[in-house]
Amino acid sequence: MTQQLPVAVLGANGRMGAEAVKAVEAAPDMKLVAALGRGDSLDSLVDAGARYVVDLTVPESTEENVRFAVENGMHAVVGTTGWDLGRLESLETLLAGHPEVGVLIAPNFALGSVLTSAFAAKASKYFESVEIIELHHPDKVDAPSGTAVRTAQLVAAEREAAGVGPSPDATTTELAGARGCEVDGVRVHSVRLRGLVAHQEVLLGGPGEQLTLRHDSFDRASFMPGVLLGVRNVAAHPGLTVGLDGYLDLGL
Amino acid sequence: MTQQLPVAVLGANGRMGAEAVKAVEAAPDMKLVAALGRGDSLDSLVDAGARYVVDLTVPESTEENVRFAVENGMHAVVGTTGWDLGRLESLETLLAGHPEVGVLIAPNFALGSVLTSAFAAKASKYFESVEIIELHHPDKVDAPSGTAVRTAQLVAAEREAAGVGPSPDATTTELAGARGCEVDGVRVHSVRLRGLVAHQEVLLGGPGEQLTLRHDSFDRASFMPGVLLGVRNVAAHPGLTVGLDGYLDLGL
Amino acid sequence: MTQQLPVAVLGANGRMGAEAVKAVEAAPDMKLVAALGRGDSLDSLVDAGARYVVDLTVPESTEENVRFAVENGMHAVVGTTGWDLGRLESLETLLAGHPEVGVLIAPNFALGSVLTSAFAAKASKYFESVEIIELHHPDKVDAPSGTAVRTAQLVAAEREAAGVGPSPDATTTELAGARGCEVDGVRVHSVRLRGLVAHQEVLLGGPGEQLTLRHDSFDRASFMPGVLLGVRNVAAHPGLTVGLDGYLDLGL
Amino acid sequence: MTQQLPVAVLGANGRMGAEAVKAVEAAPDMKLVAALGRGDSLDSLVDAGARYVVDLTVPESTEENVRFAVENGMHAVVGTTGWDLGRLESLETLLAGHPEVGVLIAPNFALGSVLTSAFAAKASKYFESVEIIELHHPDKVDAPSGTAVRTAQLVAAEREAAGVGPSPDATTTELAGARGCEVDGVRVHSVRLRGLVAHQEVLLGGPGEQLTLRHDSFDRASFMPGVLLGVRNVAAHPGLTVGLDGYLDLGL
C-alpha cells in the first residue's frame, strides 16, 4: 500500500483552515498529523512527523511558519496573503540552502478560477474584443475584485506581446461608468447582487462569434481540491512556485 | 375562408421595411397591397385598398403618414422614432374624431425584449438586488442602450411604488466606472464586443437565489413577429397605444 | 408602532424549520412565539398566542397540524409535501366553516423559481420554440426535477390554450436521449454536476431572437423570503390557496 | 513594405467561398489573385501566381484541387469535408515528395469553437463532473452535433489518460432521455430552438465551483479569422496538419 502523506494544517481554527482539516482527513492518500491554531507551538510539527504544511493563517505569522517548515525540511502550501516582494526574495534565499524543499504560494486555490484566467489570457490574442464581468455578494468593499484585476493584467500582457490592438469601441456618448473601468486597457465591470458568492466571466468576441469563460465559486469548499493538488505536487516542484497554474498540466 | 388583412408597408426600401414586406407576404392571414418608398404618393394607399399601414420610415415623414392613415380610416402600426409629446398629443386629438381607428407606436417590436422589460419590472420588487447588463456590437455610439435605460426606469418605478429600497452595495474602494452607471438608482453596465448584435440581461438577487432574464436579438428578423402581432391586434385597440406590451396578454 | 405578527414554527428542528426560525426572528414585523419539534403538543400554540403557523414538518403530521390551526382560528403557511386531492378537499370543507382563516400550501417558496415558471408560461405562447434545462447536484435521484416538470406542464397548457403548435424539430438522426425527455410535448434536459445546487433555465426562441429565464437556488435560505411573504399575506387571502404565485402581484 | 500573400479561393461561388473572397480582399497582408467556381480550370491558378489555395468546394472535387496545389508548390488551407483516412494517407504520400509545402485540413475554422474543445479537454481532468450542452436552430437533422461529439471524445480521452472516473450520477428514476445521450461516457444534451445558429456549452463542476466554457457562432463570418490564420501560418507548417488547433499557440 502507498504510504499516506503526513500533513499539518496551520490556522486550523479559521474558516479556511477548518475546511482544509476536513479535506485532508477525507483524502485517502493523506494523513492529518497536526492541526495548529493561534498560539500553538511550531515545534509540535516536528514531533508529529509532518512532511507537508498547509498554511492558512494570517499575514502576521505566515512568514515565520513557512521559514520554520523549510528549515525543518517540510514542504509548504500557502494560501495566506501578505507575501510582498521582500518576503518572497528572503524566502528564495532560504530555499537555496534547502534545495529539496518545495513551497507553493497561491493567491487563489479554486481550480476553475485559475483555469479561467489562464484560458482567457491564451485565447485573448485570437479575438478582436475582450471584456470582463465579475459578480459578487453586495458586502464586498472593493471593485473590481482582485481576481478580475489579475485576469485583466494577464490578458493585456498576452495581447500586447502578440501585437493585438485594443478592443474596438465606438462609444461617443456615455453615461459615466456605463463602460466599466479600465485595467491595462481591458474593460472590467463589477456587479454586486444579494445571493451571489464569487463569479467571473470573460467575454471574447470576433466576427460572428463569441467565446465565454465563466467561473462560479459557490462556497469555500471550492478551494480544497486545489489545496490537495498542491500538497500532492509540491515535493516534485522544489524551490518557490507562485500561483497554482504552475502545477497544472495545461500544455495544449 | 377568413379574409386576409390588406396591409401596406411604408418605408419599404429601408432595411426594416424590406423585412416587413417579406414578413407580410409570408403571413397567411395578410395580403400585401402596397409597398411605398420615399417619394411615393400616399394616395395610392386608398386605391390599393389598404386597411392597415405599417410605418417604418423616418422621423421627418412618419407624422404625415400616420395622419393620412387615420384620416382615411386605416389602422397604423408604427416603428419609426421621433414621436415626441407634442406629436403624440396632436395625434390623440385626431384620433378622437376617428374613434374606430387604432394606432400602435412602439419603440421596440422584439417580443423578447418587451417581455424582458415587463418581467423585470414585475419581479424586481421581490428581490433585494437588481442590476442590468446590456451587450452590443462595438460600433454602437451610445452607452447604455436606450432599451436598458427604459428597463432601468421601469424597474426603479416599480420598486419605488412597492417601497423597496436601493440594492445593497458595500463598495468603498472603486476603480472609476467598475460599478457601472446609475439610471434612477439602478446600476447598468454596457459591454461592447465584436460579434454581438443586441443583448440585455437583468440580474435579480435575494438571499440564496438569483433570477436572470436575458434577451438576445440576433438580427432584425426578430422585430417581425411583433410587427405582425401589432397588425393583427390594432383594430381591436382603437385610439393610441404606446408600447407593444399594451397588446400582450401578460395577466399572471 | 405597528404590532408584530405572532408566528409559530412547526418542525423547528428540521433543516427548513431551523431556517424559518431564524428568518422569523430576524423579521422586524414578526415575533416568534413558539418553535415546536417532533412530539411537542399543539396545545402550546394556543397558550403562546400564535396567530400564524408555519408548517415545515413531515407528510405524516402536516394535515393534523393545519387542521388544528384552522380550528383555532390561526392562519397557516405550509411547505410540507404530501397534500393529495383528498386532503385538500377535506381541508376546504373545514375552511368553509372558518371563513376568516387563510391557508397557503406551496410546493416551492423560492420567489425566483415561482416567477420563472409563471413568466415562462406567459411568454411561451409568443415564441415558436421552448425547451427547459434543469441542473442539479449529482446526488439527486430523479430526473427531471419536479419543478421542471411543473414548468413544462404550465408552458404546455398555455401554448395549447393559445393554439400554438409544438416547437419545430427537424431531427431525423438522434443518439438516444440527445434531445432530452418530453413532458406534455415540451423537451426537458437534466444536467447533474458536482458543485451545483438547484437551477432551472427556460429557453424561448423565435426568428432572430432568444429569451432566457434562469433561476439559481444556491441554498435553502432562498425559501425564506417566500415564507415571510406568505405569512404577511395569508390573512388577506381567506380560504385555501395552492401555490405562492397566488399571492404575487404579477398583473402586467 | 511587406509583400502580400497571393491567395486563390476555390469554391468562390458557394456561401463559404464567397465569405472567404471578401475576407481575403479585406486582409491587408493578402492579395486575391484568383476566385474559381465550378468548372473553372485549375491551370489558371498557376497563371495567376497563386501561392496559397483556400479550398471551400465539395467532397467530390477537394482531393483533386489539393493534389493540384501541392504538385504546383502551393500551400493549401482546406475547409471542405470528405477527407477519409484513405485520402489523407494518399495526400501524405504526395506531400513527402514536396517537403516544403504545407496543407491544413480543418473540420472547423471557428477559433472560439476550436478553443472551447481544447480548453474543455485540458480542464476536464481537474473536475469531478463534466457535461455538454449544444444548441442549434431547429432545422438541423442530427443530434448531437458533430462538434459536440468531438468535444466529448476529447474530454473522455483526457480524463481516461489522467485516471479520472466517470462523472457522479445518482439518478435512479429517469423519464427516458432526461439525462441526455452518452458519448464515450460523457453526457451530451441537444437543444433545438428557432432563432439560434450554433452554440456549445461545456459545464465542469467540482466541490463548490463550476467552470463554464461557451461558444456562440452567430454567422458564417465566424469562420474567416480562422481561415486567414491558416493562410498566414500554413507555409511555416510543411506537411499535413489536421485541425486548426495545431496552429494555435496554446502552451500555457
Describe the structure in brief:
Four copies of one chain form a homotetramer. Chain A has 252 residues and is α/β, with parallel strands linked by helices.
Would you write up a description of this structure?
- The structure is a homotetramer of 252-residue chains.
- In chain A, helix 1 crosses helix 7, helix 3 (59-71) runs parallel beside helix 4 (85-96) and helix 5 runs parallel beside helix 6.
- The relative contact order of chain A is 0.17.
- In chain A, 33% of the residues lie in helices and 27% in strands.
- A 6-stranded parallel sheet of chain A has the order 2-1-3-4-5-13, sandwiched between helices.
- The first copy, chain A, has 2 domains: 5-105 and 221-247, 3-Layer(aba) Sandwich (Rossmann fold); 111-218, Dihydrodipicolinate Reductase, domain 2 (2-Layer Sandwich), CATH 3.30.360.10.
- The mean pLDDT of chain A is 95.
- Chain A is built from 7 helices and 13 strands.
- Strand 8 of chain C pairs parallel with strand 7 (142-143) of chain D.
Order of helices and strands of chain A: EHEHEHEHEHEEHEEEEEHE
Biggest beta sheet attributes of chain A: 6 strands, parallel
Please tell me the overall pLDDT of chain A.
95
Measured distance between first and last alpha carbons of chain A: 34 Å
User: Treating each run of at least 4 consecutive H or I residues as one helix, how many helices of chain A?
Assistant: 7
Tally of DSSP β-strands of chain A: 13
